């Protein structure tokens, strides 16, 4: 008995097991299987390889440099500033040019401010008072301009007034121009140079046309058909966002300039072109919103003949430009190609599994096909021996007195 088990285990090590294939003559299931195979093939060739370029190694690690430069002059004549010529040193902040820059289009000027005592603006919450006790000395008005002195300055003929404060006086003006001060900025131009590099592929490129013509940048202007001219007219640039420049210049705004690089390095550097898109960012969810617009304050400081400091306060409105750069590059690599082909082959197996489910569970003769696919084998009480030499003769491994049968073919009627 022990010798029999040992020999059975010994010879079973050399067994080879293979799958049994059942050919089903069913047109509906056969058609379904071919359609699944065709869909997977179309997905592999059309979507994976042609659209997504699944045979490429893709890198999104982009290194980018942005240089901006604005050109244009404007002339204004106001009661606060008198006659004045504005150039890039006056209306561009910061002046050195970065991927975020601001162009002044409107401003409120409060000249000759000195640190002294004056009345707080009546438009400031918490500035109104009826008596001195309403203005505690030393208390700062958070949204105001200074610190309370403890005195309530009553207006003539009124029962209320405003608290006296120690601040830069006179306080900032509230009213603003009804028309943008620098409306002529619509004709200013901005030069946006973008240089990108994909270190994984050692590839770099710029959005400026490579030419020896020195006059190219002096006369060219950006257009949807000319992506290698980085000179933008401000009015045209704002119009790309669907906004009017004069209306936007009154209270300011924020515009995003998106530069997208999609580089197919298998086709060479010429296939790597910058794609531009423009969007207004400060009023994305509503046309009229309290959060729309863009402004901030800064001051210029001076000293008079007596050495006393004074300043000119400016609340500036304008357009802030955010230059955003991203991209990807792809180049042929055998590894992603093999992975995608292997995935598609696995999907073929999933198609066969789905057809098996339809065949043995969903169609009318499913029980018939189930019996053909899953064969049940019952062992007799007699013992089987492995195919080996027993007493010098070859044993078939079948019970005594039985012979191997030939192939049996079952045909569905």
Q: What does this molecule look like?
A:
This protein has 8 helices and 18 strands. Strands 1, 5, 6, 7, 8, 9, 13, 14, 15 and 16 form a 10-stranded mixed beta sheet that branches. Strands 2, 10, 11 and 12 form a 4-stranded antiparallel beta sheet that branches. It has a two-stranded antiparallel ribbon with strand order 3-4. The chain has 2 domains: 20-55 and 333-383, no CATH class; 63-120 and 171-331, Sandwich (atp-gated p2x4 ion channel fold). The protein is of the alpha+beta class and 413 residues long. 23% of the residues lie in helices and 33% in strands.
Secondary-structure map:
Blueprint: H1 2-12, H2 27-51, E1 56-59, E2 63-71, E3 74-78, E4 82-86, H3 88-91, E5 92-93, E6 100-119, E7 128-129, E8 146-154, E9 161-169, E10 189-198, E11 203-206, H4 216-219, E12 231-233, H5 234-239, H6 245-251, E13 253-264, E14 274-280, E15 295-303, E16 309-332, H7 334-362, H8 366-373, E17 389-390, E18 393-394
Parallel strand pairs: 13-16
Antiparallel strand pairs: 1-16, 2-10, 3-4, 5-6, 6-9, 6-16, 7-9, 8-9, 10-11, 10-12, 13-14, 15-16, 17-18
Helix pairs in contact: 2-7, 7-8
């Amino acid at each position: 008995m022990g010798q029999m088990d040992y020999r059975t285990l010994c010879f079973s090590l050399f067994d080879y097991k293979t799958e049994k294939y059942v050919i089903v003559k069913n047109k509906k299931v056969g058609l379904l299987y071919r359609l699944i195979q065709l869909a997977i093939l179309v997905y592999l060739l059309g979507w994976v390889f042609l659209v997504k370029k699944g045979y490429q190694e893709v890198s999104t690690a982009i290194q980018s440099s942005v240089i901006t430069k604005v050109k244009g002059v404007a002339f204004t004549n106001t009661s606060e500033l008198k006659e004045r010529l504005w150039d890039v040193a006056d209306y561009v902040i910061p002046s050195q040019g970065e991927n975020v820059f601001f162009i002044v289009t409107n401003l409120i000027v409060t000249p000759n401010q000195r640190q002294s005592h004056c009345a707080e603006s009546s438009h400031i919450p918490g500035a109104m008072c009826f008596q001195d006790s309403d203005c505690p000395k030393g208390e700062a008005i958070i949204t105001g301009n200074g610190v309370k002195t403890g005195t309530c300055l009553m207006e003539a003929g009124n029962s209320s007034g405003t608290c006296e404060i120690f601040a830069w006086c006179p306080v900032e003006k509230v009213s603003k121009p009804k028309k943008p001060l620098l409306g002529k900025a619509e004709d200013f131009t901005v030069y946006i140079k973008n240089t990108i590099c994909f270190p994984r592929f050692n590839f770099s490129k710029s959005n400026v046309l490579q030419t020896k013509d020195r006059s190219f940048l002096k006369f060219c202007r950006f257009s949807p058909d000319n992506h290698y001219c980085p000179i933008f007219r401000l009015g045209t640039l704002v119009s790309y966002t669907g906004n009017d420049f004069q209306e936007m210049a009154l209270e300011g705004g924020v515009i995003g300039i998106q530069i997208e690089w999609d580089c197919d390095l298998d086709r060479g550097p010429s296939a790597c072109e910058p794609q531009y898109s423009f969007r207004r960012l400060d009023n994305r969810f509503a046309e009229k919103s309290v959060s729309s617009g863009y402004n901030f304050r800064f001051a210029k400081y001076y000293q008079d003949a007596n050495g006393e400091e004074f300043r000119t306060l400016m609340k500036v409105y304008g357009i802030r430009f955010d230059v955003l750069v991203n991209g990807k590059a792809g180049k042929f690599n055998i590894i992603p190609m093999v992975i995608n082909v292997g995935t598609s082959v696995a999907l073929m197996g999933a198609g066969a599994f789905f057809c098996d489910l339809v065949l043995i569970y969903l169609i009318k003769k499913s029980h018939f096909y189930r019996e053909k696919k899953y064969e049940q084998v019952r062992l007799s009480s007699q013992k089987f021996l492995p195919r080996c030499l027993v007493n010098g003769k070859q044993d078939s491994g079948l019970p005594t007195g039985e012979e191997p049968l030939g192939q049996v073919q079952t045909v569905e009627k």
